[in-house]
Give the backbone structure.
Amino acid sequence: MKRISRWLPLIVAVSAVLVYAKSLPYPFFFDDEIIISQNANIMQLWTPLSWSLRSITDLTFKLNYAISGLNVVAFRGTNLLIHVAAGLALYGATRHTLLLPCLRDKFGKASSWLAFFVSLGWVLHPLQTASVTYICQRAESLMGLFYLLSLYCFLRYVGSERGRLWADLSIIACGVGMGTKEVMFTAPIMILICDYVLVAGSMREIVQRRCMYYIALFATWGIFAALYVHSMAGILANAGMVTSDVSALSYLGTQCGVLIQYLRLAFYPRGLCLDYAWPTVDSLAGVIVPGIPVLLIFVLTAWAIWRKKPAGIAGAWFFLILAPTSSVLPLLDNAFEHRMYLPLAGVIVLSMVCAFRWLGRRARRLSVLSLGLAVAICVVLALLTFARNGQYATEEGIWRDVVSKRPQNLRARNNLAVALVQSGRDDEATEQWAYVLKITESLVEGVALPRAIPDNSREWNYFKAHANMGQMLFSRGCPEESVYHYVRALGVWPYSDHVFRKLEKALRSSGIEDKHVRAEAAKRVNAERAKLLQAGIGTPNPGSRQ
């Protein structure tokens, strides 16, 4: 068994490559095009970095382009390598955790195998496709890698004679990770919790023995703060951490249901969806029903940490890593599967350890059964992930999947319509846009339009549907009909210079003299805007065209 255990990390790596290899040549889609294929910034390696909280992630995209251009296999292959490295870091962190003095007697002999099945289940879980196959979500997996490396190096630091080297590596990994994604902010806190529960006898001992380590570790928050200051003027918005106008309390209540969904998908990964368009709760029952189990788990986690129970680490891992996206900071989208990339590890570790303890108390003959069960679960996860990756093969395929699971997702219908137009199926695309407009036109009346429209809002999708229909009609030789849709789009969202230029082009093709085009475009947009303002929609000044 010892000889076999040496090959376990390699088996983890090879398994992940086999499951994801087929998806490597799949095309860029959705935000991949904005962040990668249409982003001129990544095409110049030596230009100054966009100093945001994802500067390191941006740098990896730049390096990808510098080495292989817009080769999608290279971009997605890099995602896969990051995922494999993170899986190996999880293997090391889990194994060394189980070898700590407080756990060695119970799990030491099985530490390699337990770590193997934890990391194998984690890298093969279909929830991870949202961070691996979807290229632009590299920020999530890259953050996960540095998070796990920082923890792994800390565990080596407290259990090694060369503690200084491992301590330095832990701090460096944490510091670099601060430039991958905002969630990395929680890493120093998580390491401190692990130290308190699993290693140190008390907080006083931590201060006495590792004071300088923690000063340096928490000093990496300075990197986070500096990057945040640089990103405040809009770069942060492009990275995705954008707040909405939903109240913090409403958002927190909504997250109770989202957290239950995340846990369900961890144990039963069926019905995965790229874009949930998860609605904000509007009733007390919608908060209480999922809120009770979430609160119970949270209280048990807090109790376990206070009592220094190792099981509390898994709960803290889940809640703390999800805190930036699933607590009181209202983001534009309530739920995304890629947010479970790292929290999933805590769920798998706790499940695997509990199963091992339960089976270990039974007859020894069950050990073979438990091994076979673990292998069977990993095989099922691999098959589910392989099937899930197949849905990313075409942009039409992934958006059809979303629409079938979330019919009310207007953003998904808009994107499906664009994909259908690219395939030359205008009639089917028009049906999708007609559905969007039927919903949005009935809802837009009497609804105050905020200055910054959320990307998945009703008004924004009204704008996108009209703008995209205008573009389709113009490309099919119907400029007059496209003018109608461009005007309707700009009436609700007049801040788009790109669409306004398309309107001017359509007017020009409709026979308007070039010298009168801009004035005519402004006249029509302002008239449409005035009509909407009279109905109480929108803001009066920012959208006026002169």
